[in-house]
Design goal:
Elements (H helix, E strand, L loop, with lengths): L8 E4 L3 H8 L4 E4 L2 H5 L2 H11 L4 E4 L8 H12 L5 E6 L1 H16 L5 E6 L11 E6 L4 E6 L7 E4 L9 H20 L5 H23 L4 H21 L3 H13 L3 H16 L3 H14 L6 H18 L13 H17 L12 H11 L1
Parallel strand pairs: 1-8, 2-3, 2-4, 4-5, 5-8
Antiparallel strand pairs: 6-7
The protein binds fe (ii) ion.
């Protein structure tokens, strides 16, 4: 049975004040983190809520790569104040935390609604049914997936990305790029998911380096916000692949930011998956859509990899894991654990090409 669920309601080019009025928001809990507070971005929201005379409070005790414990802490704190709306303002960690908190509040029969306003351009968390939590004790990522994790409303805007540092732009862009490519080729994908992923790729192609080189360019910021959102819609329905499975474990173990880890791995995964002819054709189709040389399948795959490598170089992203100062012997010893974790990861099922332990081993060695 094939279907394509559409949620949330997505506002773009819209005034936040009008969105809040139309949604009749009340008793708001703003969930954010200390960085967003320091940058005074949260004040923009506060000003609107004050003007509309809406009661609100702020919960900003959100950590980067949220742990299960921090979610529990958030729920205990927030449930006492009995909000009606959760408004998440932040990057992937903030939105994933808010989605988890909102989800469990509803399980506790507190009927809350959620608005997600992303302040980075990569995760697509504002439109997905995933939330990634971290088990610190065992250095593991725990991806939750449930339709009820999807926010009710997402607001896509360039208002909050004016001050994004270059490394965050690069990491977000590479995450959105990996989402698009894995979604486009996923064996669980379909016509609709490829349309969204294809449009996301075109936007990334035209805007990522523009935004990276000049963050004051508002058009590129909005286009990257749209790309991240489109890629999110796509991979939410198609699943991802082994790029993400490997990045979940390796990123958690060596504390590499998610998008950066994905970006380092991406060319190697394309090389591996393109040994399958059907998949290679899909990579060629992507190159064609982007206007890259793609007369033959081989040329199309080659062009796609070259484009990614050039972008990575321009954004100072390492070619291999060894460039991050990861110790070789320790990494090689870890291979069986990486394989075990990657095989169990929720994303592996979406990978286009089946993967045996021996392939995994070779691939993981190559990444180094
Ligand atoms: Fe991702």
């Amino acid at each position: 049975m094939s279907f394509f669920l559409m949620k949330p309601k997505i506002y773009f080019n819209s005034s936040m004040e009008k969105v809040f009025i139309e949604s009749r928001i009340e008793k708001v809990c703003i969930i954010t983190d200390s960085t967003i507070k320091q940058l005074k971005l949260v004040e923009m929201l506060e000003d609107i809520l004050k003007k509309l005379k809406v009661d609100y409070f702020i919960y900003s005790d959100i950590e980067l790569d949220p742990s299960v414990e921090s979610i529990k802490k958030g729920i205990v704190h927030i449930v006492k104040k009995n909000p009606k709306w959760i408004v998440a303002l932040g990057g992937g960690s903030v939105i994933d935390s808010a989605k988890s908190i909102n989800y469990f509040l509803n399980k506790l029969e507190r009927e809350t609604f959620m608005i997600a306003i992303p302040t980075t351009t990569g995760t697509g968390a504002e439109v997905t049914s995933y939330a990634v939590l971290t088990d610190r004790e065992n250095s593991l990522k725990i991806p939750l997936k449930d339709e009820f994790l999807i926010p009710d409303i997402a607001i896509i805007t360039d208002e909050f990305t004016k001050l994004l540092p270059k490394n965050v732009i690069a990491e977000g862009g590479l995450d959105a790029l990996t989402h698009s490519i894995e979604a486009y080729t996923s064996k669980q994908g379909n016509f609709y998911t490829r349309v969204y992923a294809g449009e996301a790729l075109k936007l990334i192609f035209k805007n990522l380096l523009v935004m990276y080189n000049d963050v004051s360019n508002a058009e590129s910021r909005l286009n990257m916000a749209k790309a991240s959102c489109l890629a999110g819609i796509s991979f939410d329905k198609s699943g991802l692949g082994i790029n993400h499975s490997l990045a979940h474990f390796i990123g958690a173990r060596y504390q590499i930011p998610h998008g950066k880890c994905n970006g380092i791995i991406l060319p190697y995964i394309i090389k591996y998956n393109s040994k399958d002819l059907e998949t290679a054709r899909l990579y060629r189709d992507i190159s064609k859509e982007l206007g890259l040389p793609a007369k033959t399948i081989e040329e199309g795959v080659f062009s796609l990899i070259k484009w990614i490598e050039i972008m990575k170089e321009e954004m100072c992203i390492s070619k291999r894991l060894r460039d991050l100062g990861i110790e070789k012997e320790e990494y090689m010893r870890l291979i069986p654990d990486i394989i075990e974790a990657a095989k169990k990861d929720i994303c592996t099922a979406g990978n286009v090409r089946d993967i045996e332990n021996s392939d995994f081993k070779r691939l993981i060695e190559e990444l180094y």
